[in-house]
Specification:
Chain lengths: ~350, ~350
């Protein structure tokens, strides 16, 4: 791999070896500002290599792909990430100022790949489990658990590979800014045995809610030193995962006391009927929920919708934390969301 | 993803969406027999999708890539694996008979992603650590450790993703066929701080031997419940990793007592000078090494060379296990190698 070069102005030079192609493009899969344009056409250099230097890009992680005579695929010179339902290229534009998600020379937690057999889906599943640095040394201690979900077309790998969640937590813990916690990341798709679309089931064919409540939580509580109580269990997610966190969290307050909603989760909110009607009894809700955290970037197409939901919660008197920031529907925002949410949950 | 379809005769149908391309090929990156031909030219169907059905393929894991008007890249419809120095496509042709590497409904070990800072390379490194199913429940028990290395152009992910090492061990342990052990998989490339090629350093610029002996082993022994002794430490690897296992293992018998050499490791063997001359004193070597395991597939281009080495060891009276099997320089063979080696090591 000769990864794309990034200059001091965050302009990126892509090079593609496609000797017989007639048209080569870099397609930005995020918003235009992320990579300075929706797409770039490359030109063939004297050495036969197609190339382009982009406009300045925004710091953070951006999905992109190549187009070679209409074929859309990953850039062989880049790291591949699972997103958009396939292995896709990612561009990490570094920031000298924003370092909370960069690995530092401090104690490191582990990310454990944990396999289990799911009776509900009749399939092997795997989840990723973050344990904080003290987990291996302080061998009798028990920890609260955050269940943390990815977005549509991504997988259980997203929060570690794209999100750098382990470094975010390591850094927060090294500075004493968050409670020590475990974080469990499962795949938000759990196809029923007879589902047509096994990879991305939707509606009744996606049994994720049943799997997390009836299989995953017991599996984690059995195999790790967790504090088994609703006070020490939270659920959060981004985009599709935000919707899952809201739906599953609010309808299972016997299991969860913290809910994190990152850039998603609400459409056509109705205080009488949405989320099994839990917003009808605000006093009970405020007692049951220790933390309801809602965040979104200004440039997100769903921003106004989510902001409106936040205002309705304010009007209703529902305790919650609202977080808005520069950024769109992308991982740089979700890294910030986790960074903020993790400082408040379980406290 | 709509992964390639595999029929009952192991013929694989590839489909590629490349509307404006003039030439689309599937390139087999393994030997011809793995996928039935070195490459396949696709034809454009009435629906505009290029396609081909291959000759019967051999069961196992085969690297391949697409060629689109001369551009070589991964198949967006397939799982990507790190091999050939980049994210490359892999084809897993299932076998109904050979199931030792398939996940079964038995106790599962963990694969832990373990980060550490390396003073020698002045960089963060990550290794993968397999702990057997009992590790989490039997919390005072200590385990022997196998250090297991990938091949050239691969990474610390290879043995888990391509090799399915965790399922191989889970299955062996469930049947009582192997000693319970930890397996540590690091990246065999460890660039010196001033190396020109950071991703794939070679010669003096690759400090892997220094890293494993002086940083990795102490890191693992400090953080996990290992048995800290040469009798309970082994090193094995495939191809480039076989060479590393031989060189590092034989020149550090104070650290290792077991050595696994999978499809590589020997060129121009000279009993007087090779491997720091350890083969000059066969009696000492036979006392120091508990297991020297050497395997190769018949179809491997290096087969005769390695078989010749095995015969010289026989003539010298060096205790070792020799394993030959159908197969070439590919993961299906290395899965078998680990399966066999793991049943003998630490016994």
């Amino acid at each position: 791999m000769n990864p794309p070069e990034i200059d001091t102005q965050n302009r990126v030079t892509f090079r593609v070896n496609a000797p017989e192609a007639r048209e080569v493009k870099v397609i930005n899969l995020s918003d235009e500002m992320a990579m300075g344009a929706a797409e770039y056409s490359l030109t063939k250099g004297d050495d036969g290599i197609w190339w382009v230097r982009t406009n300045p890009c925004r710091p953070g992680y951006h999905y992109y792909q190549l187009s070679i005579d209409g074929f859309k695929g990953a850039d062989p010179e880049s790291q591949a990430y699972f997103g958009w339902g396939r292995w896709t290229s990612g561009l990490e534009v570094p920031s000298t100022e924003i370092t909370f998600y960069q690995p530092k020379n401090n104690p490191k937690g582990d990310v454990i790949v944990h396999w289990y057999f799911s009776e509900i889906t009749q399939a092997m599943r795997k989840c990723l489990v973050y344990t904080p640095p003290s987990y291996r040394t302080d061998i009798t201690r028990k920890y609260p658990v955050l269940y943390l979900q990815h977005g549509a077309g991504e997988s259980e790998l997203g929060w570690t590979m794209q999100g750098k969640m382990n470094f975010i937590l390591d850094n927060l813990l090294a500075e004493g800014k968050a409670k020590e916690m475990m974080i469990v990341m499962d795949n938000g798709y759990a196809a029923s045995p007879d589902a047509e679309n096994k990879a991305r089931p939707s509606g009744d064919e996606n049994l994720f809610e049943e799997v997390i409540n009836n299989e995953l939580i017991p599996e984690i509580d059995k195999n790790y030193r967790t504090i088994v109580s609703r006070e020490s269990r939270a659920i959060a997610g981004l985009s599709m995962g935000a919707g899952q966190a809201m739906r599953i969290g609010l309808s299972h307050l016997e299991l969860f006391s913290g809910i994190g909603v990152f850039s998603g989760g609400v459409r056509n909110f109705n205080k009488e009927t949405s989320f099994s009607g839990v917003f009808k009894n605000v006093d009970k809700l405020n007692k049951d929920i220790n933390l309801l955290w809602i965040g979104c970037g200004y440039l997100d197409r769903g921003f106004e919708n989510i902001q409106q939901f936040h205002r309705e919660l304010e009007d209703l008197g529902v305790n919650h934390v609202w977080h808005e920031m520069d950024g769109s529907h992308e991982w740089q925002v979700w890294r910030h969301h986790l960074y903020e949410f993790a400082q408040l949950v379980f406290k």
